[in-house]
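Bug report (template v2)

What were you trying to do?
Predict the complex of my protein with FE2/S2 (inorganic) cluster.

What happened?
Run completed; filing so the output is reviewed.

Input:
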Amino acid sequence: MEHMRFDLGSTEQIPPGQGRCFKIGALDVAVFRGRDGRLFAIENRCPHRGGPLAEGIIGATQVVCPLHGHKFDLTTGQGSEARECVKTFEVSQENENIVIGLALTLKDRRAYENCQSGTP
Ligand code: FES
């Protein structure tokens, strides 16, 4: 699968400990900047009822949905509730900018589809 990279601009757009939504084509990506400077990127739509995850409160490696409090691991996308998970995206900091990679590997796709169907 083709690997696409998108430069989203300076990391300074996101205060430490917060998130922000970026539109990449039809995709809404929530990018978080941890208090330790780590970056995380997941899809912005909560699988429960579509809450904007970029507006959630983040802990070390999880975000709490602002609507009903379901939690999602920022490194794996796994949710706190059964059959709820979100896609994660490759994100890095290059020359002080946020760079997102959007290709899904076969393993990532299977993990996501298994979560959606409830298969461990
Ligand atoms: S919409 Fe996210 S927990 Fe309900």
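What did the reviewer find?
Residues 89 and 116 are 17 Å apart (CA to CA). The pocket of FE2/S2 (inorganic) cluster is lined by residues 46, 48-51, 65, 67-68, 70 (CB under 6 Å).
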